[in-house]
Amino acid sequence: MTRAATLYGAKTQTETLRPGPLRPANIIRSKFPTYKNGSNGIVIKLADGPEIPPLKEIVAKETADLLDRRQRLSVRELAMKFEKGLNTATLLSNEVKWRQVALLERDILLKNLKSVLESLRGRVTGKTKDEIEESISMVEILAVQLSKREAELLQQKEEVTKLAKSLKQASEDAKRIVEEERANAHTEIESAKDAVQRVQQAVQEHEKMCQSTGKQDMDELKKEVREARRIKMLHQPSKAMDLENEIRILRKTFAEKSTDCVNLLKELELHKRLKENSTPSFDLEGLQCLGSVLCIVALSGTHMDLSNISIQWFRIHPKESNKEIISGATRPVYALEPHDVGRYLQAEIDVGGEIAVAKTAGPVDPDAGLVDYVETLVRKPETEFNVVVLQLNGIEQPKESVHVLNVGRLRMRLTKGKSVVAKEFYSSSMQLCGVRGGGEAASQAIFWQPRNDLSLVLAFETARERNTAIMLARRFAIDCNIILAGPGDKTPW
């Protein structure tokens, strides 16, 4: 919006036309108002435009922004920023020039205004003259402020010129650094190309060497593959099963040959006895190896009832003549146990006051592979066996319930579910041996007396498990300086 004020002016259109005082100039501003000469000697004030921040603040802001980002910019970006700053400084310098021109124009306007007011002062009198003089003094104040503003602009021009020079120098330095970095990059690229060439040459030489030695390596690899296949075939389940079958057949053949030898030895012994006396002769029937049962049979050709005849079994050491009585073994049937391995077994039958003797042809043989199996179990802290309690303190027990017998390093424990039937550490009062009273399951049963007031007869699933449990428990007891044996046994195994 424009506002026009006459030198003589009137207050309003409704008031009487008379000379009035001039309006005071607005000198409390951040910049000077813009004027231009109108027709009939009227000075027109143009509307204020948008305020522009001071030139010093713009320069300081640009410089701070450049310095803040300098560390984060690459060399090329830094050069571009310096060029941009140089362009900004050039624009600011041009703006200062334009402001100087505007100040010169305003100075000319003020001089023209002052000359007009002085010419009017000579033509008027009275109160109007005083107002004109007051306006002339205000114009002089404006002239002084313009001169100060001009001095500030000159100082800003010098600062902008210095900044432009420094930015120009920095731009040149940045360009020089860019060129140096470009040269270094070219040098590194060339060196990398040379390195790649050398690597390629080395790879080609290595390929040539590999081709020359490839046949030899291939032959060695084929040999390794054949060896691996051979080892794999050896470890296949079918091969293992074939080996097991062969071992089983060999064992069966060996048992048959052993039986034949025992029978021949028994016939020779029988002939000797028949020549020496007329006492009825008896023999032991069954395999003479651990896990089998020996049975007394009459050789007279007639059936003889041995239930009412006094019988006693003995162990005889191969190198000694003394006999060791087997306490409780008074039945015609006796199941061999680990204590009998390596010894002769002899049964004495009292027939009408005369003693008949039946003796094994040789020492009792061990069960094949049982010793190695027990040595494997010794490495475990505890081994479990499923058993059935046949007798408890001599009283028959129902055979439906299954118990678990744990043979450990320090103790033996019999449990049924969560309830504990017996649990005792190895001690001198503990007794363990095979069942000596005969019966159908004699080869699978053991007699165990954990303490003096408790004795049990336990049946295992197989004779091998029964002998394993006896050997394992005796092995752990020996480690505790305890010898586990049956009732009446005194000789350590």
TrEMBL record:
Domain Stomatal closure-related actin-binding protein actin-binding: 55-97
Entry's Gene Ontology BP terms: actin filament organization; regulation of stomatal movement
UniProt cross-references to Gene3D superfamilies, sorted A to Z: 2.30.29.140, 2.60.40.2700, ATP synthase delta/epsilon subunit, C-terminal domain
Domain Stomatal closure-related actin-binding protein PH, chain residue ranges per copy: 382-489
Keyword Coiled coil: yes
Domain (Stomatal closure-related actin-binding protein coiled-coil) ranges: 101-268
Pfam families noted in UniProt: SCAB-ABD (PF16711), SCAB-Ig (PF16709), SCAB-PH (PF17684), SCAB_CC (PF16712)
One of the record's GO molecular function terms: actin binding
Ranges of residues in domain Stomatal closure-related actin-binding protein Ig: 282-379
Positions in coiled-coil regions: 150-209
Name recorded for this polypeptide: Stomatal closure-related actin-binding protein coiled-coil domain-containing protein
Record InterPro entries: SCAB, SCAB-ABD, SCAB-Ig, SCAB-PH, SCAB_CC
Keyword entries, A-Z: Coiled coil
